[in-house]
Amino acid sequence: MSIYDRGSYLRNIQLMREQIPSFKQYPFNLDAIRELSDLKLHPKVTYLVGENGSGKSTLMEAIAVALGFNAEGGTKNFTFQTEATHSELHNYLKIVRGTRKPRDGFFFRAESYYNLATNIDELDREPYQLGPPIIDSYGGKSLHQQSHGESFLATFLNRFGGNGLYILDEPESALSPSRQLTMLARMHDLIKDNSQFIIATHSPILLAYPDATIYQLNANGIEETTWEETDHYIITKQFLNNRDRMLQNLLVDDEDE
After folding, report:
1. What is the pLDDT along the chain (257 residues), one digit of tens a residue?
2. Strand pairing of 221-225 and 213-218?
3. CA dihedral 112, 118, 121, 122 (to 10 degrees)
């Protein structure tokens, strides 16, 4: 049995290529989308890596929306919309599910997390609010009353409850290196509690989870790679090992050339 068939909530993502109106228009003209056919998902962690503009966030958003999540993030219960900017890619994705269904789920999107935090505060101020405040599930303190990094971590530590499918788009963007290690440990706890992650990231720390599949989005489409082969690892290692030389090359004045 392939690892991709073991205990996954999601087994793979397929692009219904025959239904695409044109591969010359956005987002289908992105290299990663144009070459996409069948993306197999690891039962524990699947990473998407690539340069800005490679299509990571576009694909993550489409997967989340196809599954019923709000395009701006949160659980499937969130329906707020700040602005309709998501692409139509989700309409052309086929989600192949496993035999199990997750009991929890969350789409974490760093770029619109502020909007999610605002919506939580607004909902908790409604006079007809039934049950405990929503913010209680996030640690009990308004996400706007914490630093950016603290509010990110509050969601990972408090809202994610296990037996879940978690789609995370650049979750490291407000986390220090030590907090990224905390997040790795939290991920491991949730994975042991039957959770599955799909993560787009630039962080070589988050990419280090040992039992995972890493896909590189580039001009060739989407290719499976290893941690040591990612640009994130290579460039970070080169910089740490050759800081003075790299800085000399980067910071040279034009008049010195």
Report:
1. 455 555 589 999 999 999 999 999 999 999 999 999 999 999 999 999 999 889 999 999 999 999 999 998 998 988 887 766 678 999 999 999 999 999 999 999 988 888 888 989 988 888 877 778 889 999 999 999 999 899 999 999 999 999 999 999 999 999 999 999 999 999 999 999 999 999 999 999 999 999 999 999 998 899 999 999 999 999 999 999 999 999 999 998 655 55
2. antiparallel
3. -120
* Domain containing residue 251: 228-257
Cα angle 129-130-131, degrees, rounded to a multiple of 5: 125
Number of separate domains in the chain = 2
Identify whether residues 117 and 217 lie together within a single domain: yes
Residues 62 and 175 in one domain: yes
For residues 221 and 233, membership in a common domain is answered with: no
Q: Which residues pair with 92 in a beta bridge?
A: none
> Measured between alpha carbons, how far is 168 from 183 in angstroms, rounded to an integer?
12
User: Residue 56 maps to which CATH number?
Assistant: 3.40.50
Q: Which of 66, 87, 67, 69 is nearest to 77 (CA)?
A: 69
